[in-house]
Amino acid sequence: MNVLLTGGCGFIGSNLVRLLLAERPGWRVVNLDKLTYAGNAENLAAVEGSSQYRFVRGDIGNGELVAEIFRTERIDVVMHLAAESHVDRSILAPAVFIDTNVRGTQVLLEAARQHGVKRFLHVSTDEVYGSLGPTGYFTETTPLDPSSPYSASKASSDLLALAYAHTFKLPVVVTRCSNNYGPYQFPEKLIPLMIANALRDLPLPVYGDGMNVRDWIHVEDHCRGLLAALEHGHDGEVYNFGASSERHNIDIVKQVLRHVGKPETLITYVKDRLGHDRRYAIDATKARTKLGWAPRHRFEDALGETVRWYREHRPWWERIISGEYLKYYETQYGRG
Ligand code: NAD
Ligand code: TDX
């Protein structure tokens, strides 16, 4: 089976490439990634050279390139993860979110339709449902109500993917997952940013009152869910993934400090994010019952392991923070 995986040099994508190569040895994975600021080819250095794997540097919005990959690689299925993924950046500069998340997704859908595929897995987020009050959960039938330019662009791409399923019978499956954490996450997101700052004795910036709630899932559990949805999902269906680990941001930050062994005086309350969603919480009953999927990681243990990973991989995130990681591609392949 030939898989086109987009965004494989990012956080979730690189964890997914490793999982696929390890657990589906007969498969070949073609990773199409533009290497934006968030893409780090070094994340997959260990699999370069594998006959199961090929890296193509390019933009999902480049229709000619995408069509050529479908043709020459005889792609059977698509796992689409490439996206601009950071809410704060979408508030500062929304345009690229429309270009990549909306237009780029449409280019891929169209190429998949022209070529014909067995499955188009569109990877999305619980943020498309908007914000919850103190009670209740997102299910797959919760109306879409995105708040940020990021979540609005993801909701748009979900609707395009489902429209291709409805209109053209493209075998689309959409997944919506809660907040991921684990190794190789870019240190702009809450957990890796707090770990990296704590390790360097820098202030830990908590937005607003710190009482916003996110529902955390280990990246490996998400990746196993994506594989289950690819193999066992039904055409035109949506599956939510989450691990029932709701936490207030401030409690996460305090736990990180305890794991790192630094004082709570490093916590600094800063101006709130514009339009900050208050609470996310996922009901993953459908994925559990229809896909036979269940998360394996317990949040408190896996957070400790994640802190340990960042402690042991300090050069990895220091190269990112300094911008040094961008040189990896040039050293490996020359200028892109
Ligand atoms: P990330 O920002 O770490 O990685 C994104 C990757 O996409 C990078 O390698 C980047 O170079 C690549 N990319 C960006 N624009 C591209 C383009 N135009 N063409 C080709 N490649 C491009 O993101 P992530 O956290 O790994 O998220 C992956 C996917 O999962 C996204 O679609 C995101 O919306 C979704 N998701 C993320 C989370 C989470 O908590 N991180 C939760 C639910 C869903
Ligand atoms: O410095 C910070 N201080 C802070 O208080 C940062 C970076 C975040 N926060 C808060 C904002 C959120 O309430 O922490 C929470 C988590 O923030 P992020 O890590 O930016 O994640 P979030 O905005 O919830 O979105 C994430 O989950 C869903 C991913 O970035 C998305 O790609 C995914 O779709």
Automatic annotation (TrEMBL):
Keyword entries, A-Z: Lyase, NAD
Superkingdom to which the source organism belongs: Bacteria
Cofactor(s) of this protein: NAD(+)
Source species taxonomy: Bacteria, Pseudomonadati, Myxococcota, Myxococcia, Myxococcales
Protein name: dTDP-glucose 4,6-dehydratase
Pfam families recorded: GDP_Man_Dehyd
CDD domains, alphabetized: dTDP_GD_SDR_e (cd05246)
Domain NAD(P)-binding stretches: 4-305
PANTHER family per UniProt: DTDP-D-GLUCOSE 4,6-DEHYDRATASE-RELATED (PTHR43000)
Annotated family: Belongs to the NAD(P)-dependent epimerase/dehydratase family. dTDP-glucose dehydratase subfamily.
MF terms in GO: dTDP-glucose 4,6-dehydratase activity
Reactions that this protein is recorded to catalyse: dTDP-alpha-D-glucose = dTDP-4-dehydro-6-deoxy-alpha-D-glucose + H2O
A biological-process GO annotation: nucleotide-sugar metabolic process
InterPro entries: dTDP_Gluc_deHydtase, NAD(P)-bd_dom, NAD(P)-bd_dom_sf
